[in-house]
């Protein structure tokens, strides 16, 4: 019975993963893997600059324009495609490690710094 349950659990997870399309790197200082392809959706996990993510394709789940379906650790969610690139970026954390480490950021800080870009409005100013 245990073997059957383990096999079912393993096979169930294999189907959830989807087909791997490749690996990209997170380009922002901090951000989030979202539950839905909406900036205000729940966060599944926080990401830092240069974090490696696996882009996946899942039958029946086509992300809207500007979003990618990604796997980070065991979590599968959505990331804005403009925040991903194939080359590993030079990050603030790596460029200035002594300064960054002295900030003493905790998990709450990571969450809020990662949520900050979700509230930016990007584009050209309409002011004249």
Give a structural overview.
This protein has 4 helices and 7 strands, in the order H-E-E-E-E-E-E-E-H-H-H. With 128 residues, it is α+β, with helices and mostly antiparallel strands. The longest helix is centred in the first third of the chain and has 16 residues, at 2-17. The relative contact order is 0.20.
Radius of gyration: 17 Å
Overall mean confidence score, pLDDT: 85
Content of β-strand: 25-35%
Largest sheet: 5 strands, antiparallel
Quick summary:
By secondary structure, this protein is of the alpha+beta class.
List the helices and strands and how they pair.
Layout: H1 2-17, E1 19-26, E2 30-34, E3 43-48, E4 52-57, E5 67-72, E6 75-80, E7 84-85, H2 92-95, H3 97-102, H4 107-115
Antiparallel strand pairs: 1-4, 1-7, 2-3, 4-5, 5-6
Which keywords apply here?
about 130 residues; alpha+beta; 4 helices; about 25% helix; disordered N terminus
